[in-house]
Amino acid sequence: MNRNKPTTRQNATRRPAAACWVEAMRLRTLPVSVSGVLAAIALAIINHTFQWLPATICFTFAVLAQIASNFANEYFDYRDGLDSKGRVGPRRGVAEGDITPRAMLNATLITLATAALVGLALLGGMVARSGRCCNCVRRPGLFGRPLPIVAPRPG
User: Fold this and answer.
1) 141: how many CB neighbours lie within 10 A of its CB?
2) Terminal CA-to-CA distance of the chain, rounded, Å?
3) Cα–Cα distance measured from residue 46 to residue 49, given in angstroms and rounded to the nearest whole number
């Protein structure tokens, strides 16, 4: 028997890397993450204020944030010993050895950073369109008189 060639049994259990990562994304959780965005899109359409770019950015952010959450869950459950090989329930790539813990942590951080950048793009677009950063910072008198940080003591 050739030691360098995997057996048929090893080939049967070896899964393609892409399939492992897609499974780790837990695609079945994505509809819940975008449901709020879809509701907001529906309201914007009803009110004739829908815009493609902000809607696309919000949708993308929701998906990326959910995937980052799923990756983090898988990594930390494995690290804390909550997931193990052969667990009952959906297969976990890190626990089964399909994905290394370090690769999952890196994917979590990269996905989270990408979601943050997408979120900043949306925020930057809102600030640019509104022409101001925050009314209450620029004009503290908006809510009446500015409140002092330290109030003088009576007497």
Assistant:
1) 8
2) 96
3) 8
Alpha-carbon distances of 103 from 23, 77, 109, 111, rounded to whole Å: 15, 15, 10, 12
- d(CA 112, CA 41) in angstroms, rounded, equals 24
Judged against a pLDDT cut of 60, whether residue 18 lies above it is answered with: yes
Residues 96 and 24: beta-carbon distance below 8 Å: no
The strand ranges marked E within 41-132 are none
pLDDT band per the 50, 70, 90 thresholds, residue 10: very low
Q: Which residues of 44-68 are buried (b: 16+ CB within 10 A; e: fewer)?
A: eeeeeeeeeebbebbbbbbbbbbbb
The amino acid sitting at 138 is R
Residue 143, pLDDT > 50, answer: no
Average pLDDT, the chain: 76
